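If your schedule permits, I should be very grateful for your opinion on a structural question. What I wish to show you is a protein chain and, alongside it, a tokenised description of its three-dimensional fold. Would you kindly read the sequence against the tokens and tell me how you understand this chain to fold? Here, with my thanks, is the record as I have it:

===
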Amino acid sequence: MGNIITLNLTHTGLRGPIPLALGRLTLLKYLDLGNDKTCEGCGPWNRVTGDLTALGTLVNLERLILTSNELSLSTFPTAIFQLTKLTDLRLDNTLIEGGIPLRISTLHNLQYLYLGNNSFGGTIPGSALSSLTNLKELSLWGNSLNGVLPPELGNLVNLTYLNANKNNLYGGLPPEYGKLTLLKKLLLYKNTFTGPIPDTWRGMTSMQDLEINVNYLYGGLPSWLLKMPAIKILQLGNNQLSGQTLPVLNISTAPSLKYLYADCNYLEGVRPKIDNITAALDYNCWENEGSLDSACVRALNCLNFQLAVSNGKCPVCPSGQHMVNTTTCICFRDPENSSKKLAIAAIVGGVVGGVFLLLLVVAFFIFRARKKSRKSQPAVSHPDYFQIENGGSTRSLSQSWEAPGGVHHFSIKEIIKATNRFDKANEIGEGGFGKVFVGKFPCGRSLAIKQACIADYSSETGRGQFRNEVSLLSRLHHKNLVRLEGFCDDGGQQILVYEYMKLGNLHDLLHGNVQGKHVTLDWYKRLEIAVNVAQGLDYLHSFAHPPVIHRDVKPSNILLDDNLVAKVADFGISKETIEMGTHVSTRPVGTAGYWDPQYFLRLQLTAASDVYSYGIVLLELITGRKAIESDGLEEDTNIVEWTRAKMEACQDALHSIVDPRLEGDYPKRIFKYLVDLALKCASFERQTRPTMKYVVSVLEPLLQEAERPPQRSSQSLSFSRPLSSSTTETKVGGTGSSKSTIRSDIEFSNLTGDTWDTFPTVASTRTEVPQRGQSPELEKPSSTI
């Protein structure tokens, strides 16, 4: 047993803490217990938990991979510090909290350190990390790290990959990073960096992928930026960059460039015409294109911003920050503000129960007021359809507007004919945009036609909002979003045409009737729908450009096609859904029962608001109950409170909350995961909710596993599928690694007890430790890594 050097158990269905017996493999150099979410059909996911104490004796270990497990630790696992020979440590997406300890510097052989997508807080320990002089790849993305980006990391001259996106970092971009001549990929998007792009960064001559979008960077586009010899991907969007661009945007000087995103800035002059690459330059201050569009939220419009710049003023600092350098316009976090936030958080925590109940009452009355207001609105006059059908005048918005490609421009005559003059018999619903009709077209295809409220869209502002709606929706393409087929903007109408979802919406499937028959969804289809919706929302949050907050996630906005594939509907900016940055609104949004409770405290909408609503939808799929439902008591019951009360009543309460229509036919362990995930999504505090990307990473493996449900469950490591006790083909290495076949006489069936105390004898195996491959591929811009 002691002769094993390489052990790869990825995607083998491991469960629970690592047995102490594994620590007997003292010659082990390579251990992979992780999961690869990009690998389809690789087998059930591992769900390793615990503090990794059992690994402390593996002093010869060089590579340790635990990616996408469920360690659920409140601090960094200290057993790691005994493994001083480690060159590759991957603890990304493992549910670890706390700070990154200074003791990380004792792992002086590290070349690859992946800590992304956890809950690490505090500052990045620059001095400790900079002592890891062999470091090539460092991933810290998707945590809660704050403070400045350490300038000391500029001393890591071997660094080729640095990812710190989606944190709470602030201050300026460190000029010291210009010394990183081997750096190929730098991802810093979705922080609050301020100030200019450092001129020293022209020294990063190997740079291929630079993503510094969604920050508060200020200043002009450096003339050297597109002249970086290896640059392929350049993401600069959603900043405060300004100035004339024609001298800079000369694509001929950047032959390797494939992607250029610089939308939502303050760039001036004539909009450059760029061919042969993928480029996004919308929502700037181009001549003859007006000022910044409502798709970008900024403190100043183009004119006011340009006046401020000409007067030598800096832009306003991000919320909670103050100016520390008026020359470079760099802002730092306000310490007084931080302490106030802590005090407020403590107060809110003390009264959270009472506040939550109060918010439910407020939400109820707002819901009733909105419903009453909608009923009392004056009737909207429609154009004379007979006149239009017989050659009457129609006024088209697109006569002065270049409509986006990829969608069909329907005439009002086509729409009138398809809906039989908007016959009431063809009306199939009403949403946030307006009434919805089904239209039958000559080709035999049925499409859903959404007719806007004319009172809302007849003004110049309303027409501009409709243009934004069409422009944005035409760029959103995902298998779990209802597809925009076309639009109509003449005859005094603004109409959106979507694919028709024959089976209607999830609300009716769960709580009503579909085509006169009551439909009961089995457990597997419910899980599929949960995955479909999560994937659609993840696309809106992470991959749409600009990102979109749905704001009204609920079962009636989840439609199903003939194969019961779920697609998210009623997304877009018609309800002032702007971008992923915090959006302040004084108008109630969403639907009672699905409202983010934090909205009533801050009047702010974020992606976490969608996550909360998704959690409610997931609970409805599990329980079959509505978000707010009457149990015959004096007060209606909220589904979150109801579920939590049931789960706390007894240890085995799952059967009391799962939809009785399933008649007990569902996998208990998977549904327990679903309940825990739903309640996590529906947490009162936003910072405790997961991202939709994390939700997808949890649900997709459950769906894969559901096709081959495990025969038994154990608190220890166990396998949900049999493995051969003879020759096993084992995948080793990262990108560029080959497969090698190792022979092992491990009797895997013996590894399902509470511990591995009877760990079997293993035949001598000698295999070279796989080497790490190249940095991540640079084929397309990444929203997350």
Remarks:
- The domain at 96-303 is CATH 3.80.10.10 (Leucine-rich repeat, LRR (right-handed beta-alpha superhelix)).
